[in-house]
Amino acid sequence: MENSIDSPETLLLRGARVVLPDRIEEAGDLFIESGSIARINGPAGNVVASADRILDLSGLTLYPGFIDVHIHGAMGVDTMEATPDLLHRVARFLAQHGITGWLPTLVPAPLNDYEKPARAVEHLMLEQDVRGASARVLGLHYEGPFVNGAQCGALRPQHFRTFSSTADLDALATVNNADAAHMMTLAPEVDGGLELISELKKRGWIVSIGHTRAPLDVLDRASEAGARHMTHFMNAMSPLHHRAPGPIGWGLVRDDMTCDFIADGVHLDQLTLQLILKCKTPARLNLISDAVAPAGLGDGDYHLWGETIRVTNGRTANEQGSIAGSVITMHDAVRMMLSLGVSPQDAALMSATNPARLLGLDQLYGSIEEGKAADLVALDEEGNVRLTLVGGRIAFQKSPESGV
Asked: What is the DSSP string of 306-333?
């Protein structure tokens, strides 16, 4: 059962196994005040008895709240068509799955189609602190439109663009909020791509390489221009070949490049996931969902991006048979990583700390440390979400009979 209620001014989380940046604290206590983590005590620490409310989290593992920087929607809501209320519906759903922050992600479309979602993000960012607690909208992610038509994936190539002047970037709607992160996935080999990276860097955008067939020299120049990340690594990129390593080989060996990837067992084989982990290490990896509107609704046929998307046994397919995003959440991705033997600390790195760092928000979010926002998720021994806090407020909690 979902609860979306404000927390008291002070809250004590007692007895959890706490995943900290440098260690796991067994049976730790967290004291939360005014939405932030005020104190972390180990089992032998001083007991804080003056909290307005105490939650016993014995038997649960407490992680920093998950942050999804690439998600197109859920629960029937497509970010391209969303209003603030519809975005908030997605945000409530995400909180049920331990996500405390997210970037609504847009796809290539006619320029006029970007204004509505950008304004929806803008309005929700202003209102979300006074709405019921839910996953925070942190900004906006443009997946395209400056990408390679030969690696379109499920995106619509008729709306792909090239870059010739700053007017091409000015034509995209942005979020008028100083706290909003702006991210763009692009292919550096498109006409004007390197100049676009430089311009985005000047404007403070996060630049990620994706939907690309760029040769090595162009990738090197993209890095020099300011690109530091790669989108859904290995998907929608020219394949790795022993004489033509391309973006995949380049990304695997570049320690200055971070990568995000979709750990749903569909986009990447489990052995491939292990290869990425071994080459990049969790320190340079972010989990994403790349979820689309049918996420949370189960199998069926859905109308999305001008065509029918079919979901069968958790796998999406468009009318051409291509994978069209996922129907997982970050919680599912974390469980996949844990099943492969990744430690809780490394899972926290990939699902929270690294995404926050990518967005330049790691001073506030992404880890369990004193002074940071109390954005937290508690998992039971089976990996189920039992509690989600956003800014110290309860955004999701299992019913009392489940023991929380």
From this structure: TEEEEEETTEEE-TTS----B---HHHH
Question: In 191-329, which residue ranges form alpha helices assigned H by DSSP?
Answer: 193-202, 216-225, 246-253, 270-280
pLDDT tens readout for residues 45-76: 555 557 899 999 999 999 999 999 999 999 99
Let me know the angle formed at the C-alpha of 352 by 346 and 358, rounded to the nearest 5 degrees: 105
DSSP letter string, 34-47: TTEEEEEE-TTS--
Query: Residue 290 catalytic?
Result: yes
3-state secondary structure of 377: strand
Give me 16's structure tokens.
């959890």
Tell me which of 260, 290, 346, 375 is the catalytic residue. 290
pLDDT tens-place string over residues 158-209: 999 999 999 999 999 999 999 999 999 999 999 999 999 999 999 999 999 9
- pLDDT tens sequence across 239-261: 999 999 999 999 999 999 999 99
Annotate 147-190 with DSSP letters as a single string.
Answer: S-GGG-TTS-GGG-----SHHHHHTS-----TT-EEEEEE-TTS
C-alpha closest to that of 64 among 13, 101, 19? 19
> With 60 as the cut, is the pLDDT of residue 157 above it?
yes
